[in-house]
Specification:
It is a single chain. This protein is mainly alpha-helical and about 140 residues long. The protein has 6 helices and 2 strands, in the order H-E-H-H-H-E-H-H. It is about 60% helix and about 5% strand. It has a two-stranded antiparallel sheet with strand order 1-2. Helix 3 crosses helix 4 and helix 4 packs across helix 5.
């Protein structure tokens, strides 16, 4: 029962209008007529960089994706983490793409002998217990 209540409390944001509606529902009063001013105000309220809000706008403008979040701060935090991930991915890609050939030395370890049970013996034991307890 608790999970159903939590699902209902989450916000679905798939476009800019839903983002603005969610801001209103959470009590933020922002002038939404001038887009540039709106972006600056959102950045001030949530104490984030303007570039993060620009990326948020870019992500929200693609209506194919619906973001399900607890509140607006959660959405901004998610977008921030997504940007950090993309930046790290690009750094690694640049480093890895410069590698033309890689040599991997394989190390063999001695295996420790272990006792393996015979499957037939295991099946016989299971049948014995089935006969005892099912009869």
């Amino acid at each position: 029962m608790i999970s159903k209540k939590i699902k209902k409390q989450r916000i679905d944001i798939s476009n800019l209008n839903e983002f603005k509606d969610a801001l209103k529902k959470e009590g933020y009063k922002i002038n939404e007529f001038d887009e540039e001013r709106f972006k600056v105000e959102v950045a001030k309220i949530f104490e984030v960089d303007n570039s993060l809000i620009e990326n948020l706008y870019t992500c929200i403008s693609e209506e194919e994706i619906t973001y399900r979040v607890d509140d607006i701060k959660d959405l901004i935090d998610y977008i921030n983490k997504m940007i950090l991930f993309e930046n790290q991915h690009n750094k690694l890609y640049k480093k890895i793409s410069t590698i033309k050939k890689i040599n991997i030395d394989r190390i063999e370890y001695e295996r420790e002998p272990s006792i393996q049970d015979n499957v037939g013996n295991m099946m016989n034991i299971i049948k014995k217990y089935q006969i005892r307890y099912l009869d």
